[in-house]
Write a structure and sequence with these properties.
The chain is mostly helical and about 150 residues long. It has four helices and five strands, in the order βαβββαβαα.
Length: about 150
Amino acid sequence: MIITKKLKGFDNKLLYDKLNYPQCSCGACPKFYWNMLNIGSRGSGKTHTVCKMIKHYEKHKITLDGVEYKLRTHLISPTIQANEIYQSLESLNMEKDARDDYVDRSILDIIQDMKAEKAEYEKYLLYKKSYEKLMETPESKYEKLHETDPEIF
């Protein structure tokens, strides 16, 4: 016979905010963020499978609350030259984002580049928000707007 006994202090319900990540607009894909590992013999379709999935995301777009997010593919593969299929990816800039040798520095460089791109995008969003606020404000109320939101100017 098994007796279940609740422990004092462990009967509270956990409260947390559910994170809402951008997702594929088709609605059938696995929810981001996830990992994938492809293992198979040479010629078994590993590269084809990954490229096909990326093409799906390029076609169906990644969105959150109606906002479309740009897809950017980074490739680290010693077989870049042997696989012409990579050329079919619109989200892969072969000159900038494809590497045929792996070193830890490669991952750090990609992360740094992504942080810089994110900062630039956030700067653009702030500019866009400020511009829209300025455009909807009558010229006669610019002085008041300058007092409440000086960063717009």
